[in-house]
Amino acid sequence: MVNNLMKKFITFICYLMLCRSVQAENLRVITENLPPYQIVVNDKLVGGSSVLLVKEILKRANINADIEVLPWARAYRIASHNSNTLIFSMARNKTRESQFIWLVKLKNLTYHFYSLTSRPHLKAKNITEMLKHTVVTVRNSYEANSLKNFGFSEDKNLILTNTYSTAWKMLSIGRADYTYANELITETLNQKITSSTQLYKQAFDLGDTSDLYIAANVHMSSELLTKIKHSIETMRADGTLKNY
Question: What is the pTM of this model?
Answer without folding.
Answer: 0.78
